[in-house]
Amino acid sequence: FWKTLGRCAELFAAMAPRGSKRASSAAASGLGTKRRPAAEERPVLAKCDAIGKALLAADPAVVPTSVAKMLAPMLRHSLGAVKEGRHEFQASVVDMVGDLLQTISVATQQAVEEAQGQIDGIDADRAARHAVLAAAQDALPTLQAAVAARKDVEAAAKATLSEANEKAAVATEAESSGKFSYDGAAAQVAELRAALEALAALKGASSADSSKEGKHQHKQLAHVSHKYALDTTLVEAVLKVLKREPEARQSFDLVSLGIFEESLSKLLKDFEERLQLHEAPQAEKAAAARAATEAAEAAEGACGESEAAVKAAKEAERAGAQAIKAAQKHVGKWLHDTKVVMDGFDAKKQALEAFREGPLKLFDELKDLQPEPEPVEEVETEMPPTADVAPAPAVAEGDALAAATA
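Above: the chain sequence. Below: its structure as tokens.
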């Protein structure tokens, strides 16, 4: 098709009259020039131009614009020529134009049938619009009930969260207070154990007072003795004894050291027993605090889920309300849309009739174009001169009647 069309275009370009560039381009186009004396002189050319306009005005999906622009200028040199005198390429152009016109006619007919189908479905469309509206209206109460149910779940979740937070706060506070007592006892036990270790180190050390560690241990024993209110006289005597060499210590010194060590050991035992008493309850309080905290975290997660569910339900409710409005608007537009469909059907039907009675009928007239008959010249004949004739004699009325009946 394209190869044939291209060769036809080359042929018709070669057939165009030679002249100035402006004149040749106007002649090649065939259409679009302002002055067309040839079309006024020959009705055939006007018909060709009308068919070309129909091709150019066709839907590009039916007749590509490039094809229409290429064929329209060829019509005068192909369809405008008599059938017997057409070249092979001119006949090809005529056939292509005929096929395209039939394609346009079929496409227009299909558009009319589709419009007729829309008209036939007008009542069904109205019923469908009302059905959509009814469905949207029926669905709205369910969506509203879902919102109310989600709100109830949210309220319950918030109440559970509040209760769980209160329990977690109480359990955490109980753990903290017990932990203070437990940690205090544990610190006292560690302190007394360190004091006993320092005492043992000082008892066996030589010249302990001269070392840095020995001075620290002396201070540590003095601090513990003061903190736990040990006998001041005993403490002073022990600290003096510890500054002596072990072999220089007397029996009374050793007795003082024994009493001091026994006092520290008794304190240590008391605090260890106290620590053991606090250990089990503190473990229970810590477990209770962990459980309460976990419950509060779970309640918080459930509360967040309920809030999200309420939000989703509200969005669905808004969408349902919007669907009702849209359906009502769609129902209200039915009459207007019906008028648009009917007007469109009338316009397409008129376009089909105009096309068939216009370009398609013109093509049928031109596809088998015959040469115009030659005009007959009228010959003027001279009349011979008339001679003078004498008037007939008068006849009597009776003689004339007799002659007529004879």
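The radius of gyration is 61 Å.
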